[in-house]
Design goal:
Layout: E1 10-14, H1 24-35, E2 39-42, H2 49-66, E3 70-73, H3 76-82, E4 86-89, H4 96-103, E5 108-114, H5 117-125, E6 130-134, H6 151-159, E7 164-167, H7 175-181, E8 185-188, H8 190-193, H9 198-207
Parallel strand pairs: 1-2, 1-8, 2-3, 3-4, 4-5, 5-6, 6-7, 7-8
Helix pairs in contact: 1-2, 1-9
Length: about 210
């Protein structure tokens, strides 16, 4: 079982540069945390590494002030240099073992498993702190993503001892079914940060876990 299992539950807020550009990022994430986000992931696919570093540093300070872990998407070197709380790895990123060497034993390392139970089992055996499945519903962030069946969450709950995260087109209306199926966390991008009232929307997601 992951040492972070108690932390890894609830609304997982994933940022998006298009939805929260520039100075809007910190205000939007602060609103998400006030609404009940338990974990934040900084996700920026741009090539402007200096701007990303500045944003991630400011975001880390914000998250630390609120006692919420900050996970960096993909960029293990950025996570290491900032001493962020962890990293999330996709199929094309460096290996989990390499990330663990760079970040240390206390870092939270999550792994995208898409619709693959075999990938999730392998990640858990290698020491992942959580695994993420999805997308479960069509998503504007990744319109071409392979869809995963909710039954995969129930299967994961039986086979794995690490927290399970669901992602992909999740809304406050369809998220409850995924939690019931076995999700410990709901990772949300546009469903949260495209909302007119981010704090109230985060609160609606957070209520699903109570």
């Amino acid at each position: 079982m992951s040492a972070h299992s108690q932390t890894l539950r609830g609304l997982y807020a994933l940022t998006d540069a298009a939805l929260t550009p520039g100075d809007a990022l910190l205000a939007a994430v602060a609103a998400a945390i006030r609404g009940g986000a338990r974990l934040v992931q900084y996700r920026d696919k741009s090539a402007d590494t200096q701007a990303c570093r500045q944003q991630a540093r400011a975001l880390l300070d914000l998250c630390r002030d609120h006692g919420v872990p900050l996970i960096i998407n993909d960029a293990v070197d950025l996570a290491a240099s900032l001493a962020a709380d962890g990293v999330h790895l996709g199929r094309d990123d460096i290996s989990l073992n390499e990330a663990r060497v760079q970040l240390g034993p206390r870092a939270i390392i999550g792994v995208s498993c898409y619709d693959s139970m075999a990938r999730a089992v392998s990640a858990a055996h290698q020491g992942a702190d959580y695994v993420a499945f999805g997308g479960f519903f069509p998503s504007p962030t990744k319109p071409g993503a392979v869809l995963a069946p909710p039954a995969l969450l129930a299967q994961a709950r039986l086979q794995l001892s690490v927290p399970v995260c669901a992602i992909g087109g999740i809304t406050p209306d369809n998220g409850a079914a995924l939690i019931k199926a076995g999700a410990d966390m709901l990772a949300v991008i546009s469903g949260l940060f495209a909302a007119k009232d981010v704090e109230d929307t985060a609160r609606r997601y957070a209520r699903l876990f109570k």
